[in-house]
Design a protein that fits this description.
Blueprint: E1 2-7, E2 13-19, H1 24-34, E3 40-57, E4 62-68, E5 72-84, E6 87-97, E7 103-123, E8 126-132, E9 139-146
Antiparallel strand pairs: 1-2, 2-7, 3-4, 3-5, 3-7, 5-6, 6-7, 8-9
Length: 147
């Protein structure tokens, strides 16, 4: 992973380039810890050698895993970085395109980069904190602290 801060006013903006073989969620969480990011939004494009999408089953209060075990283009990847229990938390949605032009999307659970993923992270002037919602079992943003 290569990362560089390209702006600091009015919001800090980072460009992160993930390389072949890197796992996306682990890499972005590691960057958030290293950069001490309290809250940010991000967008990315690139490609994956494989990805596991998620679809929330509200009856079971868990994510159904949807594996896509082939090379795909990242058509859209958006999400946010927040804080939960003192650690960074990532929530991302992704749409990937297959060779035949079909698209699949959902929550990003896991993905392996190939050949690259270009991510722009924009910090926000607040700390966003997540807490488990008892009704759904999902960690939802429940607190916004202006910084």
């Amino acid at each position: 992973m290569r990362a560089r801060t390209i702006a600091s006013q009015p919001h800090k903006v980072h460009v992160i380039v993930l390389e072949k073989g890197e796992e996306v969620t682990a890499s972005l969480l590691a960057f958030a810890r290293q950069a001490a990011i309290g809250a940010a939004q991000f967008a990315a494009i690139g490609a994956f050698s494989d990805v596991v999408l998620g679809f929330f089953d509200r009856g079971r209060k868990t994510y159904d895993e949807i594996p896509v075990r082939e090379q795909v283009e990242v058509l859209a990847l958006t999400g946010n970085l927040t804080e939960q229990d003192g650690s960074p938390r990532l929530h991302a949605h992704v749409v990937v395109g297959k060779r035949d032009g079909s698209a699949h999307g959902g929550d990003l659970l896991r993905a392996t980069v190939f050949p690259t993923l270009e991510v722009v992270v924009t910090e926000v002037a607040a700390e966003l904190r997540r807490h488990i919602d008892p009704e759904t079992g999902i960690a939802l943003i429940s607190e916004v602290v202006r910084t």
